[in-house]
Design a protein that fits this description.
4 helices; alpha+beta; about 35% helix; five-stranded antiparallel β-sheet
């Protein structure tokens, strides 16, 4: 009698074991990549804070806010956000407002204090990698801006670096949430105190990200709620 063709139970078991190992390896690899992205945020922020402090020491003010920027780099002939050579001056009040934040990265790149070449923000939505630095997450970037307590971030007024997605309806503005609460908590814990409303790292005021009342905490049980953005004070 000719033997029947097909897999034996042992062979099928071996195939299932191999498939399980492959799937487990893929999932573990994705987890490692994601953990690396979260760690890189803290590295980026440390690097950018150092650049901002160096700029302040050299030019006696924050990028975008100094009143004599055009003396160093010339005036943009197309207007402050015309995209031509040169830049524009700030008002020197110590607050990097929306208008000044639009040229802050341009001025940092003109000094060579940060890697890359950035143009003044003039797009709707903003172009990441060209007008603002790209974060480890391809859909999000970093923005220098002054936010007050009445805004969407839980902290006292001040300058900071915002990590968020571009808003499609606001030229040059990052504000769209994109992080899971657990990921925001992870970054906050590695860089600060792990609390969304205190310290140098604070979160967007969104009930999908944090609790609805004090004491505020990240909603770590929200595993499908991409509702967080972060602000890093400097």
């Amino acid at each position: 009698m000719r033997p029947t063709s097909g897999f034996s139970l042992v062979e099928l078991a071996m195939v299932l074991v191999i498939l399980g190992l492959l799937v487990g390896g893929i999932l573990a690899g994705r987890s490692l990549i994601h953990a690396g992205e979260l760690r890189r945020v803290s590295t980026d922020i440390g690097k950018y804070r150092t650049a901002i402090y160096a700029f302040r020491d050299r030019y006696l003010g924050f990028p975008g806010d100094i009143t004599n920027a055009t003396q160093f780099w010339g005036t943009d002939s197309g207007g402050c956000h015309g995209g031509n050579a040169g830049t524009c001056n700030g008002n020197g009040d110590g607050m990097v407002d929306a208008y000044e934040g639009a040229v802050a990265w341009e001025q940092l790149s003109l000094t060579g204090l940060v890697e890359g070449n950035y143009n003044a923000v003039r797009s709707l939505p903003v172009v990441l990698g060209t007008e603002l630095p790209l974060s480890p997450f391809p859909q999000a970037g970093y923005q220098i801006w002054y936010i007050d307590r009445a805004g969407v971030f839980l902290y006292n007024s001040g300058n900071g670096i915002r990590l968020a997605k571009p808003k499609t309806n606001e030229a040059g503005n990052l504000g769209a949430r994109f992080l899971l609460p657990e990921d925001a908590w992870n970054i906050d814990t590695k860089s600060d105190d792990g609390l969304p409303d205190t310290g140098r790292v604070t979160a967007s005021n969104d009930t999908g990200c944090i609790g609805s009342s004090a004491p505020y905490a990240y909603q770590l049980d929200r595993t499908t709620s991409f509702s967080c953005a972060l602000m890093f004070r400097f």
